[in-house]
Design brief:
40% of the residues lie in helices and 15% in strands. By secondary structure, it is α/β, with parallel strands linked by helices. It starts with a strand and ends in a 15-residue tail after the last helix.
Length: 484
């Protein structure tokens, strides 16, 4: 079991769970059950959590207990809820679903889905040649045990050289290789955050970072990003000074999901404010390589660090391939050694062969990344054009890098739209996945990582179901699939 959700907590997550205005309403119990399924599908409500008692939820929602009883009964019938008399009801995985690589759940028959829930590209063509070259390098490692808690020296040197080329002198001793950026974040949290510690994050932010913080039982405070401008300097610095969090997790390069780029002046002020209040900064640089339109990047946040307050994390997933689970941490050399000591109790080390593949890809980084930028710019423009044509009421700020658009919708319908889009073969990441307690229903993340033709097709389907949401008609409820 992962715990229990109280009635008031579930009520906040449910938000506007009734049928939308302008439609012939489905029964309240069906609308309630369908919204709970949606929360389960996109990960806002975990599997194995105990739901509030029927009376408690009825009081929190100010509806009859009969409605909640009927909704729970429908959830049991669809395989989303297991109940035991006198013990309560727990969320569960339906039998026709599987746990996906994201850790969330998805239908068994979802292979034809246009997936706009995952913001990642397919592998570049250079991956195969890098893999072949890596197998030729492997024999020199076979005489040893194969455990390298901080990573093989060739890869640490390559990552350190990349930081140095960005204007941040770095030695291999300051680099620890991890099994992806998410793993890097997890290790840093294990080392730096005691259970119940306070962490400041942007809102919206990366959902899996929120999941990692929840796993550490962190107390999360947020700094809201403006849809068109990003960070409000005085508000961000004020949040640091007032809450004095133990950690702050920030994504300054093409922020996920908004695509904003933090200016150099604010980076310097954030580091100074963090030092003044005793806050350590975790800087996620997952998208730093993916600038477009000739955008010049500001110096790395760690450039302004003089007191080992900044820990940078990054990896191969976004510019190269998510299936290559290689990430890293850049920190002071003593911090790297402490992280390695923590890591030994988790997974020992990253695979040597994967690290060798990464070495060869980084050696060809200039060509690979240049191709990625051209590809992403074409796909971004195709998505923007389709949205302007089919959904002109939506507001979108054009990102100068990264892989996602953050769209402001024409109403608070993000979760409902995601459930409807599932019916026509499009998977979406609704806005509330990127925030806390059911907020951000007016927003939707749209990655431009699929081919341009698929993006145009997906927008056409989304536009059709958005129109249908406001038409009179019978509501159809089904088991929604997971997005991540």
């Amino acid at each position: 079991m992962t715990g229990q959700v109280r009635g008031v907590q579930l009520a906040r997550l449910l938000g506007q769970w009734h049928a939308l205005p302008g439609r012939r309403r489905s029964p309240d119990y069906a609308a309630l059950a369908g919204t709970v399924r949606g929360l389960l599908a996109d990960g806002r409500l975990p599997l194995g959590v105990r739901l509030p008692a029927e009376r408690e939820l009825a009081e929190a929602l100010r509806i009859s207990r009969t409605t909640v009883t009927a909704a729970y009964r429908q959830l049991r019938e669809t395989g989303h809820l297991a109940s035991r008399r006198g013990a309560g009801s727990w969320t569960m995985l339906p039998g026709n679903h599987r746990v996906a690589s994201t850790g969330l759940w998805t239908p068994l028959d979802d292979r034809e889905m246009l997936d706009l829930g995952v913001a990642a590209l397919a592998a570049p063509p250079q991956l195969l040649s890098a893999a072949r070259a890596a197998t030729e390098d492997l024999p020199r490692y076979l005489s040893g045990a194969g455990y390298h808690p901080t990573g093989i020296i060739e890869l640490r040197e390559a990552v350190a050289d990349a930081y140095t080329a960005r204007g941040l002198p770095t030695s291999p001793d300051q680099i620890m290789v991890t099994s992806g950026t998410q793993h890097a974040l997890d290790l840093v949290l294990r080392l730096a955050l005691a259970p119940g510690g306070t962490v400041l994050v942007e809102s919206p932010t990366y959902p899996n970072a929120l999941a990692a913080l929840a796993g550490r039982r962190a107390r999360i405070t947020t700094h809201g990003l403006a849809a068109d401008a990003g960070w409000e300097p005085d508000l961000l610095l004020g949040s640091l000074r007032q809450t004095r969090p133990k950690l702050a997790y920030l994504i300054p390069e093409f922020q996920n999901p908004t695509g904003h780029l933090m200016p150099a002046s604010l980076r310097e002020r954030v580091v100074a404010a963090a030092h003044a209040v005793g806050t350590d900064l975790i800087i996620d640089e997952s998208f730093v390589d993916l600038s477009m339109d000739g955008t010049e990047l500001p110096p790395p946040v760690a450039t302004y660090d003089r007191h080992s307050r900044v820990v940078s994390i990054g990896g191969m997933s976004k510019p190269y391939w998510g299936g290559l689970r290689i990430g890293w941490v850049r920190a002071s050399a003593p911090q790297v050694q402490r992280l390695a000591a923590v890591r030994v109790g988790v997974d020992m080390a990253s695979p040597v062969l994967d690290q060798l593949v990464a070495v060869h890809l980084l050696a060809d980084a200039e060509a690979i990344v240049a191709d990625r930028r051209v590809q992403l710019a074409v796909q971004r423009d195709a998505l923007l054009g389709a949205l302007a044509h089919r959904l002109p009421e939506w507001r979108v700020t054009v990102p100068r890098g990264g892989v996602t658009l953050w769209a402001e919708l024409d109403g608070p319908v993000s979760s409902a739209l995601a459930r409807a889009a599932e019916e026509v073969g499009v998977r979406l990441a609704p806005g509330p996945r990127f925030g806390l307690d059911g907020t951000l229903e007016r927003f939707l993340r749209l990655p431009f990582t699929l081919p341009a033709a698929d993006l145009v097709e997906a927008v056409g389907r989304i536009a059709a179901v958005r129109y249908d949401l406001d038409r009179a008609g019978r509501q159809r409820w089904r088991e929604p699939a997971v997005i991540a």
